[in-house]
């Protein structure tokens, strides 16, 4: 890359990620009342909200990791059992599953009129647990994060060389020895990064807390920011809360960034492993329990939502409202996907160039900046930029434009997970060959870069589009209830207890997500390798 290209790759993510965050905070503080911000330091309710946010995030993270470790080890130890592939695909689905769809499924299974309560009445006992308050929030977080952590840990364990498992088989090592020598060293290497990721996701959770919180006693900082902007007209308070949230998450990331390892759910493992000597006896029972627990966590809500929704799809699709909502959702998702991929590719290109020139530490800090949007609330970004740019930007009153931009920014950290391999394939040899052939500029892009990049870019576009389709945080603040997207329509139906219509909308949303993902994967599937 030429020097100006390197500067451009560095400038784009630096300006559009930390720069936009700083601009958003500036816009909110310009509208703030100085005395009101001073009073916030002494507001008991504020610190109670912060303690609750911190406590539920820590509890959710700890339980997610503790449950995911034995599940990942069980899936590693049992490479072949009926339904394993389907279970792994279900774990990947939860990565992009809309939070409101999961909430609907959990209520349908465990709510007052849920399947479990109905079965309890039939069997003569009362089901008293309700998925609301702290219990419901933590349980919903487990639904999302246990499969995430288990899948990523399984991917890390499967990457171990086959020779390790051959040696284990030859030595006849038992379960405790395998855990000490192979499994735990790998898991320990990835736990700090995974813990920071899960903690941030739980700390910044919005749709789950808004729907299942059940009252002011179960309010998080993200919901308090939404209330300050939407109902209280207090931009300074929202900025203060966002800074508190940013500081809390930044402490976790700064502690863990040295240990963060790049993981992707799409990687391949190193061939078939030989039969392990620790598959019988107690291991068989514990593995079966862990796998059944994972199935029981994921499948019932998904199956129930799909089963309930399919019957109501024809009636829903006959209404013009659903097609208008679908059109708005697709416009937002397409714009967000393009924004996320452009930023993520620029960020990865900048990180690669820094590492090639020996600036490893600067590359690490640039990688951390790519995760900044996980810590800065999208509502703060949107409102702050709205206030700051309103006098100059002509399209500032177009809510769909802002929602697409913000959804794209929020998707960057997740898109980065599907891009690491783009710039890690042997650099020096191909570059020398390209230079000797005189391939530069467009020719290099066409014949070398694009054949390698098209597969990861297609995967990234699919992920970003699916994430944007299922997002509710930004559209809840900037969208108009009279012109809803699919997620807004789903939230309105849940608020009016129209569960059948909500299930049909959820099925429609899942179908659109799947079709968008398959479209990009098909259009940009990896090309066959070409030889020069």
Automatic annotation (TrEMBL):
UniProt keywords, alphabetically: Cell inner membrane, Cell membrane, Membrane, Repeat, Transmembrane, Transmembrane helix, Transport
Start and end residues of each ABC transmembrane type-1 domain: 50-256, 326-519
Example of a GO cellular component annotation carried by this entry: plasma membrane
Subcellular location: Cell inner membrane; Cell membrane
CDD domains: TM_PBP2
Entry membrane topology: Multi-pass membrane protein
One Gene Ontology term from the biological process aspect of the record: thiamine transport
Chain segments annotated as transmembrane: 57-76, 88-111, 131-154, 190-214, 234-255, 289-310, 330-351, 372-393, 399-419, 461-480, 501-520
Single GO molecular function: transmembrane transporter activity
Subunit structure, interactors included: The complex is composed of two ATP-binding proteins (ThiQ), two transmembrane proteins (ThiP) and a solute-binding protein (ThiB).
Alphabetical list of NCBIfam families matching this protein: thiP (TIGR01253)
Similarity annotation: Belongs to the binding-protein-dependent transport system permease family.
Official protein name in the record: Thiamine transport system permease protein ThiP
Protein source organism: Terasakiispira papahanaumokuakeensis
Taxonomic lineage of the native organism: Bacteria, Pseudomonadati, Pseudomonadota, Gammaproteobacteria, Oceanospirillales
């Amino acid at each position: 890359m030429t020097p100006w290209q390197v500067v451009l790759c560095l400038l784009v993510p630096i300006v559009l990620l930390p720069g936009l965050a700083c601009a958003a905070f500036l816009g909110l503080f310009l509208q703030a009342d100085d005395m009101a911000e001073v009073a916030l330091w002494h507001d008991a309710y504020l610190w109670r909200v912060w303690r609750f946010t911190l406590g539920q995030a820590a509890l959710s993270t700890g339980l997610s990791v503790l449950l995911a470790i034995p599940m990942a080890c069980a899936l590693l130890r049992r490479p072949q059992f009926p339904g394993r592939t389907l279970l792994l695909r279900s774990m990947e689905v939860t990565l992009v599953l809309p939070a409101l769809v999961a909430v609907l499924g959990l209520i349908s299974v465990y709510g007052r009129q849920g399947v479990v309560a109905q079965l309890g009445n039939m069997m003569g006992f009362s089901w008293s647990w309700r998925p609301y308050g702290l219990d419901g929030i933590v349980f919903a977080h487990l639904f999302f994060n246990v499969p995430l952590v288990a899948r990523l840990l399984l991917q890390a364990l499967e990457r171990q060389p086959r020779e390790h498992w051959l040696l284990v088989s030859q030595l006849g090592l038992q379960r405790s020895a395998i855990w000490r020598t192979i499994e735990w060293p790998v898991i320990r290497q990835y736990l700090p990064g995974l813990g920071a990721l899960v903690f941030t996701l739980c700390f910044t959770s919005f749709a789950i807390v808004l729907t299942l919180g059940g009252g002011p006693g179960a309010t998080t900082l993200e919901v308090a920011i939404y209330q300050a902007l939407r109902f209280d007209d207090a931009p300074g308070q929202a900025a203060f809360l966002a800074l508190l949230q940013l500081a809390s998450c930044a402490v976790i990331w700064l502690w863990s960034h040295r240990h963060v390892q790049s993981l992707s759910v799409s990687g391949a493992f190193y061939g078939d492993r030989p039969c392990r000597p620790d598959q019988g006896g107690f291991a068989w029972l514990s593995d079966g329990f862990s796998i059944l627990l994972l199935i029981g966590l994921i499948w019932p809500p998904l199956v129930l939502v799909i089963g309930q929704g399919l019957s109501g799809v024809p009636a829903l699709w006959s209404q013009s409202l659903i097609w208008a909502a679908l059109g708005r959702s697709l416009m937002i998702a397409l714009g967000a996907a393009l924004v996320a991929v452009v930023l993520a590719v620029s960020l990865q290109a900048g990180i690669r160039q820094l590492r090639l020139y020996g600036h490893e530490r600067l590359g690490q800090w640039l990688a951390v900046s790519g995760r900044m949007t996980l810590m800065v609330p999208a509502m703060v970004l949107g409102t702050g930029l709205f206030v700051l740019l309103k006098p100059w930007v002509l399209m500032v009153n177009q809510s769909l434009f802002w929602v697409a931009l913000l959804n794209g920014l929020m998707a960057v950290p997740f898109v980065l997970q599907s891009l690491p391999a783009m710039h890690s394939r042997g650099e020096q040899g191909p570059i020398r060959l390209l230079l000797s052939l005189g391939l530069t500029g467009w020719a290099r892009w066409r014949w070398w870069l694009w054949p390698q990049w098209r597969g990861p870019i297609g995967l990234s576009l699919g992920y970003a589009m699916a994430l944007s389709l299922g997002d509710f945080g930004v559209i809840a603040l900037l969208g108009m209830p009279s012109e809803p997207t699919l997620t807004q329509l789903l939230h309105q139906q849940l608020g009016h207890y129209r569960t059948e219509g909500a299930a049909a909308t959820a099925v429609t949303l899942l179908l659109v997500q799947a079709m968008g993902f398959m479209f990009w994967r098909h259009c940009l599937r990896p090309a066959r390798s070409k030889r020069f």
